[in-house]
Design goal:
The chain is of the alpha/beta class. It has nine helices and 13 strands. The longest helix is centred in the C-terminal third of the chain and has 49 residues. 36% of the residues are buried. Belongs to the TRAFAC class YlqF/YawG GTPase family. RsgA subfamily.
Length: 343
């Protein structure tokens, strides 16, 4: 009989067991803690192990649950409950999964630097779309001249916003109180993600680095996504800094991020109101009253247009792939017919 106790600190629960055990047959369940191209570090009922990743198992990511065979090879990627997904940095219309089976997303931004509300909205859309609960964390609060908590709260409806100082230990209890399940940290380099991760883990697990003095920008200290158990229960995934956060099929996430604007839009006179010069526009009325800002409306439009463009591009890519597949099939059929004719 397999003993799953060693998996419990990495997120194994009765609910996870009931969901996955019927799917894997004779395979052994394991969770991916770090990816390295054709191999990955996993935790199994027997403890940590190194697993091979064959080419036919694609898209594996830190946080995934998988099935291993007796040789320690990944044979099955189990269905994800959630996934933080952005458009590929290559510019192609494909998705890149940053972390899988995440329950809480910590959106980190340095309070002592440029608190970019537009970037926070973008990452909120990413987090909401994943199916996880976002929490906006203003790090390095002890070094900030002006904590913009109220400004951040106005752009994060439905999300908790906290200020912390990992160095001073301030605000960590408030943050820990809202963490559940698997927690992933996202944000730009220099946002203090690894320092915060170490504070939550209670040990210097991840390497840290100071921001560049010349421009105040961060350096890429974390180069891998890595999962670790939290001392109070749950798990944590630290991720490399995000230079760009392209949205991929994130209509629902945008709707949750801008729920204030979408609620107003429901009261517009026309269902297809563009919120420009149309009469009876509730969004423009709120803008005139100061209920929402021009910056927020512009950000909403920008993300919505970007998401629509990516969706259209993805549809074209899929159509092109289907056409190439049919052409390949047609060529094979013609070759088979020719070969038959020579027999």
């Amino acid at each position: 009989m397999v003993d799953y106790d060693l998996l419990v600190p990495y997120g194994w629960t009765e609910a996870v067991a009931s969901r996955y055990l019927p799917l894997i047959g004779d395979l052994v369940p394991a969770r991916v803690v770090r990816m390295d191209r054709s191999e990955c570090d996993v935790v199994t009922p027997r403890g940590p192990a190194r697993a091979a990743c064959p080419r036919d198992i694609t898209g594996l990511c830190t946080g995934d649950w998988v099935g291993l065979d007796a040789d320690g090879t990944v044979r099955q990627l189990l269905p994800r409950e959630s996934a933080i997904t952005r458009s590929s940095v290559s510019g192609r219309s494909v998705a890149q999964v940053l972390a899988a089976n995440v329950d809480t997303v910590l959106i980190c931004t340095a309070a002592d630097g440029d608190v970019d509300l537009g970037r926070i909205e973008r990452m909120l859309a990413l987090a909401w779309e994943s199916g996880a609960q976002p929490v906006v964390v203003l790090t390095k609060a002890d070094a900030a001249d002006d904590l913009r908590l109220d400004a951040v709260r106005t752009v994060a409806p439905g999300a908790t916003v906290v200020a912390v100082s990992a160095a001073a230990g301030a605000g960590l209890e408030d943050l820990t109180a809202v963490l559940t399940g698997t927690v992933a940290l996202i944000g730009p380099s220099g946002a203090g993600k690894s320092t915060l991760a170490n504070a939550l883990l209670g040990a210097e697990v991840f390497a840290t680095n100071a921001v560049r003095a010349v421009d105040g920008k961060g350096r890429h200290t974390t180069v891998h996504r890595e999962l670790r158990p939290l001392p109070g229960g749950g798990t944590l995934i630290d991720t490399p800094g995000l230079r760009g956060v392209g949205l991929f099929d994130a209509a629902e996430g945008i709707g949750r991020t801008f729920s204030d604007i979408e609620s107003l839009a429901a009261d517009c006179r026309f269902a297809d109101c563009g919120h420009e010069t149309e009469p009876g526009c509730a969004v423009r009325a709120a803008l005139a009253e100061g209920t929402i800002t021009e910056r927020r409306l512009t950000s909403y439009r920008k993300l919505a247009r970007e998401n629509e463009w990516m969706a259209a591009r993805s549809d074209k890519r899929l159509a092109a792939e289907r056409e190439r597949a049919w052409r390949t099939i047609a060529k094979q059929q013609r070759r088979q017919y020719r070969e038959r004719g020579h027999r």
